[in-house]
Amino acid sequence: MKKFVVVGLLILISLSSHAQATIIKGKNKDYSNKELKLYTYFDRITFTPSQLDSCLVDSSGNFIFSFQQNTINQVFINLQTKQGFLLAQSGKTYVITLPPYQPMSVEQKLDPYFSPKPILLPVINIDSNDINWKVRVFDHYYKIILNQLVIRKIENPDTVEYTINLLDKNTPNDTSRFYCNYKKYCYVNIRLATYMKDLWPVAKQYFLHSSPLLNNPAYMSAFNDVFDNCLSPLKHFFPSMNFIRSLTTHRFSVLVDSFMTIDTNINRQTAQLIILRGLYDLFYDYKPAQEKIIATIDDAQQTLTDPTMRLIAQNIYNKITALRVGYPPPEFSLPNHLGLKKSLRNYRGKFIYLNFCHSQSLACQKQLPLLQRYAQSAPKDFLIVTIMYGVKKKDFGHFTKKYRSSHWIFLNGEGHADLINKYKVVAFPTYYLIDPNGYISLSPAPAPTEDFNQLFVSKYKKWHLEHRKKEAGIKASNYFQ
């Protein structure tokens, strides 16, 4: 946890260098007394959101966000069924309009694949000089042209380039670095979708010799397309390079140095981003190398000095080790029936049978009595932790009173739908077993109606046997000192 705090502080420090306050505000009574959170993507490899600010909408519907930045970033607000996006420039104030409040339905909450609809947030004080106006006008025509070229299967370079020139001449002009690069890499996307099939020349022409534009969505979209699965042995993207063999060192810098021997003019930060992206894809594409990749990404998050690159490495590490047996589970902080925030760390030293339930799920309703019997006969170092969805804060204590005990803890998951994604909950209920050291032991774990008891007894005996051996070893070493 300290590692994340340090990286977060480093990013804030780097952003605050010559930074100015950006303010986003508005009014909508539909959101009265609701908490709103503002995010951005510092990391467009894993698309892990980073929170910039939060605010509580007052009783009249007024809200205001304020944060420091020294550039232009795409920011967004999660609005239940919608996700509102905006380009925010440093030093500017934006007065925005939020759409009517539309809470998620029970079906949407139960659907693990549901994702909010992306929308552009209307800006009341926008003008033709604003980056949002220029990008939105450009995007309108860009998407029409891209779709037409793809649908008509036009692959003639001359035709595509002529179309790009027309698009460039008939959309807003701006000499700002962000807008020029935004258009440039949208054009790269058009070329990739039509006639540019050999990706190595594209990589050399548009990416390798300059610093990465991490905050530019068009650049990162083209980057991800070009370098998708670039380290896969089957793709042969890089000439004469065997990165899988290099993984045996577990040192990220060795991979980067090896890659940079291809071309001495490669930008080192870009090389780091390419290797991070390649390892992230390779983890899912080549299972025999997974443990080596984890060790290499772990080295990257320990050794990278650039705070944003280190954040990307940390996000990748968290993604590829999430819910993996032998690794810590995703952390959380949720209220219990008294409103006190609790996390898995509060229950360290016990076996935790973690489960996700929804009050509207029939399967959950049937299994709650079975869990109650488990809790009544549980050993002292066994604890059931149920994260419950579908119960309002005011009703949570009454709803859980029937079941909770010293061996059964209930936490309220309402308002924390992101946890469902982190724990890959595709159906309610879903179970995991976490050992007393805080590492995942069964992922996922069987339900009480399946063979959980047999598996748990085996894990329980094995852990205690190993624990006793360790204690005996410590006592013996102390005796001989």
Comma- or semicolon-separated keywords:
481 residues, 15 strands, 16 helices, five-stranded mixed beta sheet, globular, Immunoglobulin-like, Glutaredoxin, disordered C terminus, 3 domains, alpha/beta
Describe this structure in words.
The protein folds into three domains: 2-125, Immunoglobulin-like, CATH 2.60.40; 132-321, no CATH class; 334-469, Glutaredoxin (3-Layer(aba) Sandwich), CATH 3.40.30.10. Mean pLDDT is 90; it is low at 475-481. Helix 11 (290-303) runs antiparallel to helix 12 (307-321). The chain has helices at residues 2-16, 106-110, 131-151, 157-169, 177-193, 199-206, 217-226, 243-246, 252-260, 268-285, 290-303, 307-321, 362-376, 393-400, 418-422, 452-480; strands at 20-27, 35-40, 50-56, 62-69, 72-79, 82-89, 93-96, 117-120, 334-335, 341-342, 351-358, 382-389, 408-412, 430-434, 440-445. Helix content is 43%, strand content 19%. The chain is of the alpha/beta class and 481 residues long. A five-stranded mixed beta sheet has the order 3-2-5-6-8, with no helix packed on it. The protein has a five-stranded mixed beta sheet with strand order 13-12-11-14-15.
Give the overall shape.
Answer: globular
**Class from secondary-structure proportions:** alpha/beta
Rg from C-alpha positions? 26 Å
What is the total number of structural domains? 3
Number of helices: 16
The main sheet comes to: 5 strands, mixed
- Quaternary arrangement of the chains shown? single chain
The share of residues in helices is 40-55%
- Roughly how many Å apart are the termini? 35 Å
Mean pLDDT equals 90
Task: Give the spatial strand order of the biggest sheet.
Answer: 3-2-5-6-8
Percent strand equals 15-25%
